[in-house]
Amino acid sequence: MAKVEPARGGAVARQAAMLCQDRAFQLYLDRRRRAKFGIEPSALPDGTHNEQDARDWLCAACQINSRAELDSNPAARQTFRIIRNRFNRWRAKQKGEKNQ
Question: Which parts of the chain fold into alpha helices (H)?
Fold first, then answer.
């Protein structure tokens, strides 16, 4: 009997994996959660989210079980693109504030 390999993702799934590994994205999730729920930094310090937390959050936000689904699920892929765009805007704003 042949061994069944887990589904491997395509280009979008790989982008999502790299995003979840990005420390800046993990920091974005820390700050996003604090802002959304009115949590003090002492209760949710920077560095709280790790790669697995980012993966779990992304899958929940995109309503998928695996990032591999991003390549075959148009609705999830669109949600991922929105998340990535919001993160990129946040990151650009952070860089702009550092340069002032």
Answer: 11-21, 23-37, 51-62, 74-98
pLDDT of the chain, 100 residues: tens digit per residue: 555 445 567 999 999 999 999 999 999 999 999 999 999 999 999 999 999 999 999 999 999 999 999 999 999 999 999 999 999 999 999 988 776 6
Contact yes or no for 84/29 (Cβ under 8 A): no
Euclidean distance between CA atoms 29 and 53, whole angstroms: 9
Question: In sequence order, which residues have a C-beta less than 8 Å from that of residue 63 and are 6 or more positions away?
Answer: 75, 76, 79
3-state secondary structure of 99: coil
Structure-token pair, residue 82 = 């929105």
| Helix or strand (DSSP H, E) at 55 | helix 51-62
pTM of the complete model: 0.86
